[in-house]
Amino acid sequence: MRRRLIVAGLVAITVAFACRERPEHPTPPPATPPTNAPADVSHGEAPIGSAAEPAPIEAAAPPRATGHVHRLRIAIKHAKITIADGVTYDAWTFDGRVPGPVLRVTEGDTVDFTLVNQAPMPHSLDFHAAEIAPSRAYVNLMPHDSLHYRFVARVPGAFMYHCGTAPVALHIANGMYGAIIVDPRQSRPAAKEFVFVQSEFYTKKLPDSTRVIDWDKLLGLAPDYVVFNGREAEYAHHPIPVRVGEPLRIYVVNAGPNRFSAFHVVGAIFDRVYLDGSLTHPLEGVQTVTVPVGGGAIFETRLVEAGTYPFVSHAFADATKGAVGMFKAH
User: Fold this and answer.
1) 279: how many CB neighbours lie within 10 A of its CB?
2) What is the pLDDT of residues 264-321, one digit of tens each?
3) Which CATH class is domain 69-183?
4) Which CATH number fits domain 192-329: 2.60.40.420, 1.10.238.10, 1.10.3720.10, 3.30.2130.10?
């Protein structure tokens, strides 16, 4: 009898615990994959717009820098931005945009840098292209304060910069990142150049329909959007015009904060890919190259005939979430 009572008590406790742990809301049904293709072109993961209409964020790289000392200034601001058609996000930004401005200098140049914090909380800025003591230069900057320092851009390549204030994932995911190109002293061969910064947005909707960061989604590596240059499928909606046979050079920086980029141009093979600061040993004749979170690479290719050429992260869950664009060759 005693044994039966003990067993019955344990069963009752287990049932009570299970009931208490049962979620208040039922688990939503699994998502159903779409069955209608957004575009007729292979790998057309988003509707394709007109190349005559410019994209909201210019993909063309800035011209090669002149001079040897560059006085650069960036202001930190909190601002509302658009991350997809009809989707507004409360972002933390460099110069009021996401990604921040593309900076360009030459190997051996001096960067004379000023950071101004116009936001209501501490932030910072970390240059992956700099060799400098973080304890001196990458410190938290309080609201209404500024910071000034210099560094020499010694290594050429495509590099990330970002806010390094903890938790870093939160500051990056909220929009605080950008690209800096360091050109080699000897100019690369002439090409049409573009910059793509890949990143992710993890969002939840406020009552006014504005989106803000969802920390649980971020820690669970479950983004709502994976994007190039801050907007979902921006260069599918606004294809980038190029010429057939024209040399293309694509600077890709992966800001993350979580997901690797598997960069690929459909219908093309990369002649050369330079990883980070590599100059003398490029990868040659490759189809897809991984750009790690916090890393960069330089891709060189040309398109052999007229037509529409998608470029994607070949991790296709991410392409489906917006990491897709189009070159329109004519």
Assistant:
1) 14
2) 999 999 999 999 767 778 999 999 999 999 999 999 999 999 999 999 999 999 999 9
3) mainly beta
4) 2.60.40.420
The fraction of the chain above a pLDDT of 90, given in percent, is: 82
- The answer to whether residues 249 and 293 touch, using CB atoms and an 8 Å cutoff, is no
CB atoms within 10 A of CB 133: 9
Instruction: Let me know: does 236 contact 226? Beta carbons within 8 Å.
Output: no
Per-residue DSSP letter, 316: H
Q: What angle do CA 278, 284, 289 make, to 5 degrees?
A: 75
Q: How confident is the model at residue 34 (pLDDT cuts 50, 70, 90)?
A: confident
Q: Domain extents for the chain?
A: 69-183, 192-329
Examine the pLDDT at 14 and tell me if it is beyond 60.
no
What span, in angstroms and rounded, lies between the C-alpha atoms of 67 and 62?
15
* 42 closest CA partner among 330, 329, 326: 326
